[in-house]
Amino acid sequence: MNQPEVLKEIFNLNKISLNDLQIDQFLLYYKLLIETNEKFNLTAITDFEEVIQKHFVDSVINYTHFAKNGLVCDIGSGAGFPAIPLKIMRPDLKIVAVDSLNKRVNFLQEIAQKLGFENFEAIHSRAQELHQFRPRESFDYVTARAVAELNILTELCAPYVKINGEFIALKSANIDEELLKSKHAILTLGLTKPIIEDYIIISKNTQSLNRKILYFKKVNHTPLAYPRPKNKITQNPL
User: Does pTM surpass 0.85?
Assistant: First the structure.
């Protein structure tokens, strides 16, 4: 099977349909990802089928959850997961991808331009300084994938979620200990106990992946003291 057929089949296995434009965009994204990865490290996963399963489908397995025209901030976007696949699947979403490494931000800007995105912006910033570029509590959704443990991640993300918005954490299956350690942070930062959805991501020739997505609703304002500087967050997590 050629690459378009493999791509389409893996998405179909996970009950996601792609149109011709989305297929072209994912294939171009993969091509640019691999080319850029040879210059500086973006991902340790480069096999086509693994990238489709572990990066692309994993980023969009919940793509129908977002409200139409929602404003999304992806913290620690890295090579663009979940921001770029989500924008491919949901072009109506307004997405701001945030990363602390300028090379990755330049890559995201190049991808957005070559894929013809509108209402997509990549910002070079740490989460702690994002308030210099965007107001606190201004996003409908803040997403994060493979960034940090929950008690740290909630402090980085919750300040930018508006009241009644959601912080969405994409996690592996083993999160019981993280959840236990993050109880105080969740309460302090104005979030509710999460709703947790379980997913199994299927591929053709690789092992299925167990994933969890955690949805934290923002019900109270996050105190202005948060997020703290990086050294304080890591040395003394909430």
Answer: yes
The domains of the chain are located at 62-235
How far is Cα 181 from Cα 205, in angstroms, rounded to an integer?
36
Query: Which position has the token pair 């149109």?
Result: 19
Q: Quick count: other Cβ atoms within 10 Å of Cβ 183?
A: 13
Distances (CA, A) of 93 to 28, 89, 159: 20, 9, 20
CA 200 to chain CA centroid, nearest Å: 18
Residues 104, 124: Cα–Cα separation, whole Å: 9
With cut-offs at 50, 70 and 90, classify the pLDDT of residue 197. Answer: very high
Token couple for 189: 């930062």
Sequence-ordered list of residues with C-beta below 8 angstroms from that of 145, at least 6 positions apart, any chain: 58, 59, 74, 76, 81, 82, 169, 170
39 Cβ partners below 8 Å, 6+ apart? none
Q: What is the CATH number of domain 62-235?
A: 3.40.50.150
Q: What does the buried/exposed string (b/e) look like for 106-142 if buried means 16 or more CB atoms within 10 Å of the residue's CB?
A: ebbbebbeebebeebbbbbbebbebbeebebbebbbb
